[in-house]
Structure formats: structure tokens, C-alpha cells
Amino acid sequence: MLNTRIGSLELSSPLLTASGTFGHDPSALAFLKPGDLGALVLKTVTLEPRHGNPTPRMCEFTGGVMNSIGLENRGLEHFQQVVAPDFSGLAMPVIGNAGGHAVDDYVAMVGAMHEMPCIQAIEVNLSCPNVAGGSLPFATDPDAIQRVMQACREATDKPLWAKLSPNVTRMAPLALACESSGADAITVGNTVLGLAVDWRTRKPALGAGFGGMSGPAIRPIAMRMVYEAVQAVNIPVIACGGAQSADDILDFTVVGAAAVQIGTAVFRRPDAFSIIAAELRQILHQASTTLDELRGSLEWPGRVS
Amino acid sequence: MVSLSADARCGSALITNTRSCGNDAFVLELQLSAPIGELRAGRFAMLSPENGAGPVIPRPISIYDYDGGIKISFLIQILGRGTRVLAALRPGHKVSITVPLGNGFPETIFNREAVAVAGGVGCAPFLTWLRQREAQSKNTHMIYGARSADRLYELDAFQQAPGRLVCATDDGSLGFVGNAVQAVQTEIAEGRISSDAVFLACGPAPLLHGFAAWAREQKVEAYLSLETYMGCGIGVCNACPTPSSESGAFSDWPWVKTCIQGPVFRLSDIRF
User: How many structural domains comprise chain A?
Assistant: First the structure.
């Protein structure tokens, strides 16, 4: 009933983990019933180890949390030797997530993940700062996106997803840059850049200063970004941002999302995927409809003269 | 690789009772949907109201008492938004719970003289610990400190538990006048506790820092039960790290995950 397709990838459910919110450890999958999670998107890996940001790395605001983890990971070699073998033989597709600070970094990461049998698709994290481009995230510049994605496309024939950022003015040109570079799907989006401060200490609440907002408060932003991307391209768009319930998944579906990534909701309930999947089956059954029937069925209001 | 403990479960639990302790704390008694097996003292749960109220993320709370079946309780001080919404829940309400999490106090020290050093609500993990050391009660001490007598939560329960209890209050309203670390120093100086004992501390950050400084200086064997800001409690979000020491068990990486590699750490394994 929840079967979903993202390009050539067949999934048992439209629910995916959001990169960085399910770590590099399959043991948390024990909280889930088989089939409820459609695919496991792993935390971003970079070529070299990254120690991540100073603490505090997380703080709260009404309706969400802010984080500045700083892509803490032990690098590609550790990922190949220690992490990836733990994920072979899973019943669901495993999606690697590649980070980088230059085109060559991304190509090396995608090339390495191409060789790993346990990785079925590769998501490219374009929110990393582009060192050669004034350290603005690749995801803010269609030309930078094109350089990265074209080079990655040449490095693999596995399904290649581009993960975009909501910290932009218009999504359409960025989504088009992904599509024209040969991406198989686009993930829209990521955390929304924010700042929390404490006037008593006169310091930012997070150790790194700025942080990325996630949780239900950013869902309308993600919804708008997904809508713009869906309108602009013909490849599948995977929604990411603030989904917490089956209704949220169906809202994203009506806007046109092929699937939905869930992150912050997992912190409150590690079995969130199973709770939401059960709720989805019940709602679809009661409404006598299907995900396919709902997908992209949004009726935009007509102009009032 | 470090993994989530295999006995962790998540689900919902029914609140069977709540009772207040002093002016700013309460005990939350829950009925689990299934037993979670034998528990080492010092482990914790992630708790949040099931009705969706309160912060987006749950709160890490030390296990106070567990009967081995489906009855579990938590001693919680009301400190912010998360604990305030938990305090507002009543019998019949439900909480989302992930439990048991973390590693707990080391079992290897069972035959040795051991001292719990608790500050305020930091007493919570030690009730189970004292009971589990019943066979070693002559070798077991608890130094229980707080700002004032009304913050020595659940004092009756600790008085009835095995082991020797020493209370300390900053204002002198009960027991030793001073904090728990000063009380430990006096106990050692007066020969009631040996400095060869193992010391386990849990409490507010100032107490833990004072304890760590003393333990390093005196070169005693010490463990800390830490509380850091946690997103998930299950090792996936990387939000709760504690810096590792360069010579300790976690020296291959500058951070340890407080949730699944702690919350109890040997002092020499962390930078604190």
C-alpha cells in the first residue's frame, strides 16, 4: 500500500531518514517494523575526518530545534572499512550521503560510494561551503551545483540525488541545474539557517554561532520549496523539512513529493517511521485513496479578478 | 563501533502516580507496556508527553526506581520547559519513553568500598545502586548534599536503603555544613571512608567540577554521571558529546557520545 518509487529505486514506504538524523549505526533500526522505513539515508561522510563543532551543538526554540553539529564524521576510509559493512544485507535501500568542499572532494566520495555494494544510491549534500566560491554553500549557486553534479554524474551510474538547501531565494533555477546535470532526484531541503543568542551571556546559544533550524516550525518553508522544485523539474523531488505525522507526509505528497525524509521527529520517538507508516495506511484506507492518486494533485487557487 | 545498547525499547507508558518532592521536584511513576529486564543502576530514559505537548525533543532522565517488571519511576527536578510539561502530567496520561539507555555505573567495582557523591536531584540513580550493593552495604557510603534540607529529595528512601548515608547542606539546615565534596573530604580525614574507595558522582555541574578537581588532585578512582543537552539519546544525532581525554579509553576521537558511551564516565577518560 505504501510502495513508492524514486526513479529506478523501489521502496516499501515513502518514508526515509533525513541524512544526519540516523547516524552511522544500524542498531536504531531495531525500533522499527520491517517495511515501514523505505530507505536509510546515512549521515554525510567527507573525504577527511571532521571533528565537528564545539558544544553546545543543539538548542531549542518554539516548534523546533537548532543544531550545529558540523558534519562530525570519521572520514571516507573509516566509512569504507567500519561503517559500510554494517549496512550490507539490509532489507531496504541504503543511500550514502557525500559531502565536500571542492568538486574533486565530491567526485572522490561519489566514486568511492559507487564501489560499495551496500550503497544503492548516493545523495550529494550541496549545503557544504564551497571553498573556491567564497565559502557560500554550493546549493546557493546554479553554476556551482552544475560543476559538482556533472562531475559526480560521470563518477557513478547509481541513482544520484542532489540535496538542496532552503537558504536561497528561488528554488527553480537550482533544481533545474540539478536536473540538467543528470541528477536522478532532488532532495528539498535541509535545515534553515538561524541564530539563537543569550543576552545574559551575550553569546550565541550554539558553540559555532549560527545553527540550522529543524522540526515542525520549518515545514511551511520546506513545503514552499518542494512546490517550487516540483513545478520546475520532471525528476522526482524528495521532501525534507519538519514532517512529523501522516498528514504531513500526505501534504508533501499532494504538493508533488515522491517521498519524504524524516529527521527531528525521530528524536522524540525512535519508532516514528512505524507510527507514521501505520497512520498512513489507516488514513489512505479510510479515504479510499493512494499515494499515487494524491501525488501532485494540489489545486492552486485561481486568480480572483 | 559503539552501538546503542541492545535492550533499549521505545513505546508509550501510562502514568500511574505522581507525587511532589519539596517545592521543585516530583516522582513520576509509570507502567511500561512490557518488562525491560535486569537494569544496572545509572542508566536513563528519554521522556516526553505523548500528547505532543512541550519541546520538540524529549528529556534524558535518570532511572530512579525499577521493580524488574513494568513499574518504573523517575525523580525529576523542574528546571525548564521540558521538565515543566512532564510535571503537569497526571495519572492516566501517557508518556513516550525510550528506555533503558546509556551504560550505568561500573559493575566491576562491586567488591570494593564505594562512595556515591550526590548533589540534589543527582541522588536519583543511587537508590537502585545502593539496593544493588546490599551484600556490600558495609562497604557502601552515600554522601548526599544539597543547598538546603528541602532539596534533599526522597530522604526517607535513602535513609532506608542499604549503606551508610551522610547528608550535607550548604546552609547547615541538615547534617554536615558544606557541599558534598567537602563532606567527602571530612569523611576521609576522619577515617570513616578510605581514599582507596571508588567514588561515583552525580549532580549539578558546579558540584561535578568541584568533585573532578578534588579527585584529580587526590588521584582517587572516580566516575562521573554526566548530563549534557541531548537530541536523541540513542547515539544518532551527535549533539551531546563530551570531550575525551588524550590518554583514556576513547582517545581515538576527540569526543565521546554522552548518551550511548556514557552517561557514566571514568574521570580519566574525559576532559571535564
Answer: 1
**3-state SS assignment for residue B209:** helix
| Gap between the Cα atoms of B253 and A54, Å rounded | 14
Q: Give residue A85's domain range.
A: 4-52+70-192+214-294
Q: To which CATH superfamily is domain B9-101 assigned?
A: Translation factors (2.40.30.10)
B189 near A CB under 8 A: no
Nearest partner of A99 among A60, A138, A142, A147, judged by Cα:
A138
Q: Which H or E run contains B14?
A: strand B9-21
* Domain ranges for chain B: 9-101, 107-227
- Give a yes or no: residue A302 inside a domain: no
Q: What is the CATH number of domain B107-227?
A: 3.40.50.80
Contacts with B, A 38-67, CB within 8 Å: 43, 51-52, 55-60, 63-65, 67
Of B236, B253, B261, which to mutate for an interface test with A (greatest number of A Cβ within 10 Å)?
Answer: B236
The DSSP call for residue A163 is: E
ipTM: 0.94
Q: With an 8 Å Cβ cutoff, is A211 touching chain B?
A: no
- Residue B16 C-alpha cell reads as 500511574
Tell me the pLDDT tens digit for each residue of B187-221.
999 999 999 999 999 999 999 999 999 999 999 99
Domain of residue A138, CATH code: 3.20.20.70
Residues in chain A with CB shorter than 8 Å from the CB of B228 are 55
B9-101 and B107-227: same fold? no
Q: Which of residues 208-227 of B touch A (CB under 8 A)?
A: none
Q: What is the pTM of this model?
A: 0.95
Note whether residue A30 is domain-resident: yes
**Helices A219-232, A172-180: crossing angle, 10 deg rounding:** 50
